[in-house]
Write a structure and sequence with these properties.
This protein is of the alpha+beta class. It has one domain: Class II aldolase/adducin N-terminal domain (L-fuculose-1-phosphate Aldolase), CATH 3.40.225. It is about 35% helix and about 25% strand. The chain is built from six helices and ten strands; from the N terminus they run βαββββββαβαααββα. The strands form two sheets. Strands 1-7-6-5-4-8-10-9 form an eight-stranded mixed β-sheet, sandwiched between helices. The chain has a two-stranded antiparallel ribbon with strand order 2-3. The model has no long low-confidence stretch (mean pLDDT about 95).
Length: about 200
């Protein structure tokens, strides 16, 4: 594990009441499956990893698990934020809720911006799967680290230059252990992740 889990973009956090539990029910269902598989969790150092998001229908906004929540077994509405604005060029983001949005929020936003049919994005850590899939599925540049404008640019490049739309998975080349899947809904994004994990991650 070579990354520090800290937010690298400029964040404007508007503290607000949590979303209704009904809104995050599906997110929590899939997050628990990924947590149980060890794809979301916390390192011995105390740094959490992994996050999950869902587009708010008909908008460019999305709900995402909060910063430093990877090690929490069961999340509540207190652990989710709504990302309302993203500016990749200025490396800035606005989020609303009881907690700051995940340090991977810029990368999630890049996926949503690249394909408007995507309604769910999942980010996990698994070293075995990362090594097995590196450059075998669409892979971002090893020069682009997590949570940076460079990573967002790399994600957008993959959508233009690779078959990532069909594969629905990519390896984060400059973020050791990091992988992302996405889909038209959480069931699709989660199923893709678990299928690759069954084959390459266990």
């Amino acid at each position: 594990m070579t990354n520090d889990g800290y937010i690298k973009f400029n964040i404007k956090w508007i503290k607000a009441k949590p979303l209704p539990e009904s809104v995050i029910r599906e997110l929590n269902k899939w997050r628990r499956k990924l947590f149980d598989a060890g794809l979301i969790g916390m390192y011995e150092s105390g740094i959490g990893f992994g996050n999950i998001s869902m587009r708010i229908p008909g908008t460019n906004e999305f709900i995402i698990s909060g910063s430093a929540t990877g090690g929490i077994e069961n999340l509540t509405a207190e652990h989710y934020a709504r990302v309302t604005e993203v500016d990749h060029e200025k490396n800035s983001l606005v989020c609303v809720g009881p907690i700051k949005a995940s340090s991977e929020s810029m990368t999630h936003a890049a996926v949503y911006d690249s394909d408007h049919s995507v309604n769910a994005v999942i980010h996990v850590h698994n070293l075995r799967m990362w090594k097995m899939l590196l450059d075998r599925v669409p892979t971002t540049s090893k020069e682009a680290t997590y949570g940076t404008p460079e990573m967002a640019e790399e994600v957008m490049r993959l959508f233009k230059e690779s078959d990532v739309k069909e594969k629905k998975i990519f390896v984060m080349g400059g973020h050791e252990e990091g992988l992302m899947t996405f889909g038209k809904d959480l069931d699709e994004a989660g199923s893709v992740m678990l299928r690759y994990w069954e084959e390459f991650g266990k």
